[in-house]
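INFO batch 0412 | record 1 of 1 | parsing
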Amino acid sequence: MHIVILGAGQVGTSVAEALASEANDITIVDQNRDSLAQIADHLDVRTLAGNAAYPSVLREAGIEDADMLVAVTQSDQTNLVACKIARNLFNVPTRIARLRSPDFLDDELLSNDNFAVDYAICPEQEITEYIGKLIEFPTALQVLEFAEGRVTLVGVRANPGGLLVGQPIRAMREHLPKDIDARIAAIFREHQPVDPDGDTVIEPGDEVFVLAASEHIRPVMRELRRIQQPVKRVMIAGGGNIGSRLAGLLQDRYEVKVVEVDRNRAEVIAAKLDKALVLVGEATDENVLVEENIDEMDMFLALTNDDEDNIMAASLAKRLGCQRVLALINRRAYADMVQGGPIDIGLSPAQVSIGTLLTHVRQGDVTRVHSLRRGAAEALELVAHGDAKNSKVVGKRIDELPVIKGAHIGAIVRGSQPFDIIGADGMPKGRSTQRVIIPHHDTVIESGDHVIVFCTRKRQVKAVVKLFQVGALFF
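INFO prediction complete | emitting tokens
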């Protein structure tokens, strides 16, 4: 596939890294020659310096032969104009735009008659919702959903005291109620993947990814570690786009304090927030944190635009007694370095939004992609199509499928007659027509199944996607 990427920032670079390893023909356009040089040093891609909104620059980038345009510059206006030009002048089949302002997220505005954006992504909104999920599961490193929320994946650190630590995975079945099933889909030990089976023993410090029906995920998590008390009090450092959005999302359910250094900005967001308390001050100032009782906070979120300030503020908050801290860190190397020390979660914004982009880029049978461990691994939701004659998976038992080392099927979501969803507390949680199956070796994949596959290394993704492709006779 020939893909033109506009923007060599964190998002554009992450997309290029993900796609360059899959034998795509990629051209990256940006006005910053230094950023382009850094990308060209470690990726096999073509780079072009120029304004991404100019038709002449797009033509030089090869837009006339492109299958897809991914416009992820820092400018919403540039991304919109580029998509419009790509469709009207060059007839590019698929156009994706990153849009930071919610004012542009309007279906009519993005239609083919206007800016011609096929898929719009808003990283700030995605990050806001992502952090909201982490607050719901205060011990989690990642919380991701599949099948429109029917299945939840949670990544946790296995700490001493969890019922399964020091025991084989098969022991989890002994602790769960009969009507609850789950799958430990992946384990990373000292940053290296461990292929899990029933005899694998979970060790303290392991990063464990657990998959279950969403209504069952909480009791399953209790098997891995002691459950932290629910979050009630949250302090947010930084009142920018993400910080203010998150405060608005949380203020009805939690006690929220926002610390913003700029007085004018603090006044603006205070006027928008009904219940959150907005303070003017430096989150890296020990006196400010102490005065605002940081030791009584359940969670501290450092969400400024400065990586170093976020690292310093989160580390300070932890030292002063905050139970759990998160730092937003744009440089992925920093995030890898600090997580697991005084900072519980180092969150890379680009790696949160990359999953949505990859879902649209891969298209076909892939309906959801989540990046795991800051891009080192992936989880995919694929739809099985066809029949036993033209599909390599439909009508096959799990143990009959070709072995792709490091790739594992974690769950299957299958359509059925409507039924009541019963939560872990035994109470009805709603109705659904999709049943979650935790598969075993003799489970047969049916046409229409949504199959969730874990790839502990990115190089396995291409083989997994190819496995689910339907032969030409089906069409």
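INFO post-check: DSSP finds 15 helices and 22 strands in the chain.
INFO record closed
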